[in-house]
């Protein structure tokens, strides 16, 4: 186990990729902070399940990643309760699909806040402790959309390109201090986020559900398979290991060949 006596914060971890990442880190011995929205009983089931299955401490913060004050509270609570933050995974994210001229301004603001600015707020809170302890792993879950664009996703593409840029800057700032900062950029992973954008894409492009899956989603992915949440989680765990000590400022594509085209 590579993370015994370490603590991790994973934003947006009540479901999808984030929950798999939190479980992967707990399996390696890390205490974890779960964060995100959902039904209280389901969140508690996930939290208690992690604590029981892996014998670690698992705590929950309902902080809204669009609100800097709530992010600061979550980070302070994590340090107080778990004594440290060694691993920070910025995963919370939302999507909205619309032509740029119809893109609701409040959706633009929310996507930029949750998918980009929240990572700035968590990182600035976590870095001083990481520097003091000489160890830190910052992993930002970006997207193939950190490298390439798709139509109707102006806010998401802007946020993910921005997240990659910020990751590189932070990596340079903390280099040589035992801290790495990297992005993981998945292609399409089958999660509620992907499922929920299908109706809007159907509307925006005038397609059926099957056509969206075949001709829009998996069209970009040469392997013609969705990425699994466990595959993304395994890469986060790898980035926490000694083997990944010299990997920093990198963008790891997990996209079935999408961005190789
Ligand atoms: P998801 O919708 O399944 O889960 C998102 C998580 O974020 C949930 O726990 C949700 O409660 C939480 N969340 C949403 N808004 C929040 C807020 N304001 N404050 C706190 N938590 C909030 O999504 P997912 O597919 O697991 O995506 C996770 C990350 O991976 C996102 O950043 C997404 O952009 C990225 N990503 C996903 C895919 C994909 O195909 N699913 C591909 C590339 C990148």
TrEMBL record:
Pfam families: adh_short_C2 (PF13561)
Family note: Belongs to the short-chain dehydrogenases/reductases (SDR) family.
Protein name as annotated: D-beta-hydroxybutyrate dehydrogenase
Gene: bdhA
